C-alpha cells in the first residue's frame, strides 16, 4: 500500500504532457510545468482517481426542457447504479413501458412538450439566442402553473412569451411580421395574448428607448456618426416631454435623425428614413413637428428644413434592408 502511495505521489509531480517536473503554486492552486510551461489545476492530480462519474447524466438543467432535464430515464442496459447487471428483463421492460405511459399520459407534460418545441422553433427562425428562449420558457411555465393556458392556443401563448422575453432583454421583436414566421398567428393574436399574460401574471416590461433604434436606422439610411450623435442629443433634450408619451420609439428616432441631418447638413429625406425605419413619411413628419414644437417651447434652436430645388426629387435608396423589396437598388421618383 505504501509503495502505491509513493508511486501516486511521484506521478503527481510529473507533467503528463512532457514528463517534466511540476512547480506547485499554492496561492493560485495551480501546477506549472518547468519544461513546457503548461498550467493545470493542483486538485486535478490529487483527485484524478475520483473523477469517474457513475451517475450517467451530466446534462445541465434547462427550463427549455419539459422536465428541466431532471427526468427519470430507464435505459436498456439493465444495470443498477453501481454497474451490476440486473436480471429479469421482463420486469425491466414492464417498468420502461409504465414509465413511458406515465409521462405521455400527463396533459401538463404534453402541453410543455409542444410549447418548448414551439419556443425553440420560433426563436431559431427569428435568430434569437438561448437567453430569450430560456426566459420565454420560464414565462410559459409560470402561466401554465397558474392555469392560464387552458382553452387558449399553445403557439399563441408561446409567441407572446417570446415577445415579453424580448421586451425584458431589450431586443426588438418583429411584431408586425409575426404572421410571416408563425402559421395561424397574427399581430392581433400576439398582442391579445401579450396583454393577457401581463394582466393575469401582474408583470411589467420596460418601455424601449428611442435611442436604441438610432444606429439601426442610421445604418440603413447611410447616415454618419456625427448625425447619430446629434440625434441622440436631440432625444435627450425632448425625451421627457409628455407630448411624446405613447408614441412609437422608432418613429421618434427617425424624426430625431431627420432633424439632426438638417442641422449637420447631411443630405437625406423623410422618404429615405421612412424606408429605413419601415414607417410612413407622414408619421416621421408628425413626430418631427412635435419635436420641433418642444424645442421651441424650451427656447432651443430648431434647424430649418431644406426646400427641394426641383419639381421632382429623384433618389436612389438602398432597399435591400427593407423586407418588402426584392431588388437591391431601385430608383424611386417622388412627387413633392
TrEMBL record:
Gene3D superfamilies: 1.10.472.170, Cyclin-like
Pfam families: TFIIB (PF00382)
Keyword Transcription regulation on entry: yes
GO molecular function annotations of the record: TBP-class protein binding; translation initiation factor activity
Biological-process GO terms, alphabetical: transcription preinitiation complex assembly
Keywords: Initiation factor, Protein biosynthesis, Repeat, Transcription, Transcription regulation
PROSITE patterns reported for this sequence: TFIIB
Example of a GO cellular component annotation carried by this entry: transcription preinitiation complex
Cyclin-like domain sequence ranges: 117-199, 212-293
SUPFAM superfamilies listed in its UniProt record: Cyclin-like
Homology family: Belongs to the TFIIB family.
The protein, known as: Transcription initiation factor IIB
Gene: tfb
Amino acid at each position: 500500500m505504501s509503495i502505491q502511495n509513493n508511486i501516486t505521489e511521484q506521478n503527481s509531480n510529473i507533467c503528463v504532457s512532457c514528463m517534466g517536473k511540476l512547480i506547485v503554486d499554492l496561492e493560485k492552486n495551480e501546477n506549472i510545468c518547468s519544461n513546457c510551461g503548461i498550467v493545470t489545476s493542483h486538485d486535478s492530480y490529487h483527485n484524478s482517481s475520483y473523477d469517474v462519474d457513475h451517475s450517467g447524466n451530466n446534462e445541465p438543467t434547462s427550463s427549455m426542457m419539459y422536465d428541466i432535464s431532471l427526468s427519470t430515464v430507464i435505459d436498456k442496459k439493465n444495470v443498477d447504479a453501481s454497474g451490476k447487471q440486473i436480471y429479469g428483463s421482463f420486469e425491466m421492460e414492464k417498468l420502461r413501458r409504465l414509465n413511458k405511459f406515465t409521462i405521455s399520459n400527463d396533459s401538463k407534460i404534453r402541453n410543455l412538450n409542444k410549447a418548448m418545441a414551439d419556443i425553440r422553433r420560433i426563436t431559431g427562425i427569428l435568430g434569437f439566442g438561448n437567453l430569450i428562449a430560456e426566459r420565454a420558457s420560464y414565462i410559459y411555465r409560470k402561466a401554465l402553473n397558474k392555469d392560464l393556458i387552458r382553452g387558449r392556443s399553445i403557439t399563441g401563448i408561446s409567441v407572446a412569451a417570446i415577445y415579453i422575453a424580448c421586451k425584458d432583454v431589450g431586443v426588438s421583436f418583429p411584431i408586425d411580421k409575426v404572421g410571416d414566421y408563425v402559421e395561424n398567428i397574427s399581430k392581433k393574436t400576439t398582442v391579445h395574448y401579450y396583454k393577457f399574460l401581463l394582466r393575469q401574471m401582474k408583470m411589467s416590461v420596460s418601455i424601449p428607448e428611442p435611442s436604441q433604434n438610432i444606429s439601426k436606422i442610421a445604418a440603413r439610411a447611410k447616415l454618419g456618426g456625427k448625425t447619430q450623435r446629434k440625434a441622440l442629443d436631440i432625444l435627450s433634450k425632448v425625451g421627457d416631454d409628455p407630448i411624446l408619451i405613447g408614441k412609437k420609439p422608432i418613429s421618434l428616432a427617425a424624426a430625431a435623425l431627420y432633424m439632426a441631418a438638417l442641422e449637420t447638413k447631411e443630405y437625406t429625406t423623410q422618404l429615405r428614413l421612412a424606408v429605413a425605419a419601415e414607417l410612413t413619411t407622414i408619421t416621421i413628419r408628425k413626430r418631427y413637428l412635435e419635436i420641433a414644437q418642444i424645442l421651441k417651447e424650451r427656447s432651443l434652436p430648431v434647424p430649418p428644413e431644406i426646400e427641394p430645388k426641383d419639381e421632382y426629387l429623384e433618389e436612389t435608396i438602398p432597399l435591400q434592408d427593407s423586407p418588402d423589396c426584392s431588388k437591391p437598388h431601385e430608383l424611386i421618383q417622388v412627387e413633392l
